[in-house]
Specification:
homodimer; 2 domains; 7-stranded antiparallel sheet; DNA-binding
Chain lengths: 194, 194
DNA sequence: TTCTTGATTGACGTAACAATAATCAAGATG
DNA sequence: CATCTTGATTATTGTTACGTCAATCAAGAA
């Protein structure tokens, strides 16, 4: 090799390579295949585990339980969520297909107020409203009364019609002559978000 | 091809291939690299969480979601008769987009029981469960306690963990040493049908 | 003395691959 | 007719291969 001018740093360094154990986990690793849905939990668990191993004091529950004790600890309890007789996964579900019967006549409305809490409809819930559906007595409807939109349960008896709240703090309203009632649509579903 | 004698079963079967979702995990998988020492724990955890769901009807979110943006009306329409062409039309909303953050990790479970009515979750409701989401204190979760599923509100304070009902008729449960808790997923939405 | 440099090696995440598993419907058998 | 078999079809799974990134080295430059 001919002479090198200046600006010739570097060069061979036998044995200079990265040292074993210098990686994130300081130990050998393995490649495994896991369900996509489990990836975040496993990663989080590894992260918290690495911190603990680093000698730093970490609260065991600082991170979410799903990243917790992958090892199980064992107890029992009954209650809460009895399972149906069916087993295993059924067919997949598409929300648009499952919740929308008449696409051209379906609209969403956000609930304001709490007059329907007895029916499990709360402030902020999203209502799926089907305008192609014929309203029947007992159904929850979007109604227009004297130009104002409201969510109520429709009651029809003979020629008499009511809009009933599902909260005792609100009055029932009977539709009388001279009152303009329009049933705008029928509430098919209510979606509450957490 | 000349004539076939007997003993000629088999043959072409277009479309006969293995169905999607027929694997051990019934969902897509990913390959990740983890420390060798963590492999047994992760495998055990995957096994146990799969077992826990064995008797429950769970529906995965469709792998081919339809697109159906539908109009979202403003909550307060002061005057007139709302119609699709109205100015009051705030936005459009697609349920598959709006309600599903992690498609591959989203599953649906139907509620049985009434321990969570205080949170607006009633018997028969359809829960949208996000399994990729980290559970935090205060969130409603699907939890596995000794192979039994339950829907509860998770409470974490320091090192203590509880599963709380939202109905005074049911007891709160504190997770103690030796108890086996797995958070199967976080409840993102509840859908009530009318 | 500190920083830079080209080279050396280990670590990591993903792609690629092959074997296995699940599914299909026509044909064979009892 | 009911059940099993068959060859083909397709998804899943675990492992290996691969390329990029990261950590380390010591001579040279400032």
């Amino acid at each position: 090799m001919t002479q090198r001018t200046s600006f010739s740093h570097g060069g061979l360094r036998p044995g200079s390579g990265r040292k074993t154990g210098s990686g994130r986990y300081a130990e050998p690793t393995e490649v495994i295949r896991i369900p996509q849905s489990a990836v975040p939990a496993v990663r989080a668990w590894l992260d918290s585990r690495a911190e603990a191993m680093g000698g730093v004091t970490v609260q065991p529950f600082t991170s979410a339980p799903s990243s917790l004790p992958l090892p199980l600890f064992g107890a029992r309890i009954a209650a809460g969520f009895p399972s149906p007789a069916d087993d295993h996964l059924e067919d997949s579900l598409d929300l648009n297909v499952h919740l929308v019967q008449h696409p051209a006549a379906t609209f969403f409305v956000r609930v304001q107020g709490d007059s329907m809490t007895g029916a499990g409809i709360y402030h902020g819930d999203l209502l799926v409203v089907d305008r192609a559906r014929q309203a029947k007595s007992g159904e929850i409807v979007i109604a227009v009364i004297n130009g104002e939109l409201t969510v109520k349960r429709l009651k029809i008896e003979g020629e008499r019609v009511w809009l009933l709240p599902e909260n005792p703090h609100y009055p029932a309203l009977e539709i009388r002559d001279g009152m303009e009632l329009v049933i705008w649509g029928v509430v098919a579903h209510a979606v509450r978000s957490f």
